[in-house]
Design goal:
Belongs to the LDH/MDH superfamily. MDH type 1 family. GO terms for molecular function: L-malate dehydrogenase (NAD+) activity. It catalyses: (S)-malate + NAD(+) = oxaloacetate + NADH + H(+). The protein is α/β, with parallel strands linked by helices. The protein folds into two domains: 92 residues, no CATH class; 321 residues, Lactate dehydrogenase/glycoside hydrolase, family 4, C-terminal (L-2-Hydroxyisocaproate Dehydrogenase, Chain A, domain 2, Alpha-Beta Complex), CATH 3.90.110. The chain has eleven helices and 17 strands. A six-stranded parallel beta sheet has the order 9-8-7-10-11-12, sandwiched between helices. A three-stranded antiparallel beta sheet has the order 15-16-17. A two-stranded antiparallel ribbon has the order 1-4. β15 and β16 form a beta hairpin. α7 packs across α11. The radius of gyration is 21 Å and the shape is globular.
């Protein structure tokens, strides 16, 4: 267990924040306009009684000791209501006070883009991050200056252009790659391939040369192909560790949780839907039969929810009418996965996320599924989610395999061809 003391200065009433305490707590809250500079304590039990709050770890009990609660009365009340009696009794028996320290370095490659900027802000708010390295080919200096004013532990450093890429990666624990061009109306993820494939290849080569032991999080689309490209590059460099290469598919889970909670009138804090396969179109397969808490869906609801989860990216692209893609929700989802990775690195033994990784759960070399994260990356692939599928899910799983296989082969072929050319 741990108790972490935070000093909170004046903050704007409209600002939203995600607060993480140690390796256990992450809470969303709107700041009260009455909040002044005060200290408050969040006491966290990191043993056995943690619950999920939109996928981020929510503490089973929160105590705020100040005149103004940073969390707000409603947030605290919601968390307290979610505690089981067993958790209350356990935490009443003993408390152990430990001071959390930021100790991890994170690099964002593509930090001045539509995903990179909000993602950098969310990472800056993690108390586990001591150093935030922001890299891009242009316009990153201003982003770093802006973020550096936020009174959170992470120091912010900016790096611009290819000549500074290596320095941006020195000593880094986690690398996140949102770099690349976004989808525009009428574009598929395959339309992005030639541009983004080359960008990812170059960045991963730099990662291999400068921080080969880092966790690598690939956001750049098409993820179904860019992750295999990254794997081939790392193999060619002799530093490939399949446990440390991740395709970030968390946005599919975030969307599935949100849509299911809305459709079935459930508390979002309770909902968890595993999403398997890949990260594009029909390769995205939400396993609604595995929804927690256990929920019944009609055939029509299953079809409607599945199609919406698969196509919501296009929905956002069309709604923005050429002004961008799903940047904010993607940044949120990536921040969730990064926080999970940091907690795993920090020794949390109860970290599970869905991710697109090298896998033997199917005949495909890469596959998205729920994984257990640890200090060395993927500790286990959760195969139980693929057992006992409904007829609809089983047919959808078989239907997605040819498309996913083609995307994987396209990425591998591209990387190998580039090597021959070089």
């Amino acid at each position: 267990m741990s108790a972490i003391l935070f000093a909170v200065g004046e903050m704007a009433a409209a600002s939203a924040t995600t607060l993480s305490a140690g390796s256990a707590t992450s809470l969303g809250s709107i700041v009260s306009p009455k909040l002044q500079s005060k200290a408050f304590i969040v006491k966290c039990n990191t043993r056995n009684y943690l619950r999920n709050f939109s996928g981020l770890k929510a503490e089973a009990f929160v105590r705020c000791e100040s005149e103004s609660s940073f969390l707000g009365n409603e947030s605290v009340a919601a968390l307290r209501q979610s505690i089981t009696p067993e958790a209350r009794n356990e935490m009443q028996r003993s408390w152990n006070h430990v001071q959390s320290q930021a100790s991890y370095k994170v690099a964002v490659l593509g930090a001045s883009g539509g995903i990179g900027q909000p993602l950098a802000l969310l990472i800056k708010m993690s108390p586990l991050v001591s150093s935030l390295h922001l890299y891009d080919i242009a316009n990153v200096k201003g982003v770093a200056a802006d973020l550096s004013h936020c009174n959170t532990p992470a120091q912010v450093f900016n790096f611009t252009g290819a000549c500074e890429l290596a320095n941006s990666l020195k000593g880094v624990d986690v690398v996140v790659i949102p770099a690349g061009v976004p989808r525009k109306p009428g574009m598929t993820r395959d339309d992005l391939f030639n541009i983004n494939a080359n960008i990812v290849k170059g960045l991963v080569e730099a990662v291999a040369d400068n921080c080969p032991d880092a966790f690598i999080h690939i956001i750049s689309n098409p993820v179904n192909s860019t992750v295999p490209i990254a794997a081939e590059v790392l193999k060619q460099k002799g530093v490939y560790d399949p446990k440390k290469l991740f395709g970030v598919t968390t946005l599919d889970v975030v969307r599935a949780n949100t849509f299911v909670a809305q459709k079935k009138n459930l508390r979002l804090i309770d909902v968890d839907v595993p999403v398997i396969g890949g990260h594009a179109g029909i390769t995205i397969l939400p396993l609604l039969s595995k929804t927690r808490p256990s929920t019944t869906f009609t055939t029509e609801e299953v079809q409607e929810l599945t199609l919406r989860i698969q196509n919501t990216g296009t929905e956002v692209v069309e709604a923005k009418a050429g002004a961008g893609s799903a940047t904010l929700s993607m940044a949120y989802a990536a921040a969730r996965f990064i926080e999970s990775s940091l907690r795993a690195l920090d020794g949390d033994a109860d970290v599970y996320e869905c991710s697109y990784v090298q896998s033997d759960l199917t005949e495909l070399p890469f596959f998205a599924s729920r994984v257990k994260l640890g200090r060395n990356g993927v500790e286990a692939l959760i195969s139980s989610d693929l057992r006992g599928l409904t007829e609809y899910e089983q047919k959808a799983l078989e239907a997605l395999k040819p498309e996913l296989k083609a995307s994987i082969e396209k990425g591998i072929t591209y990387a190998q061809k580039q090597t021959v050319t070089a």
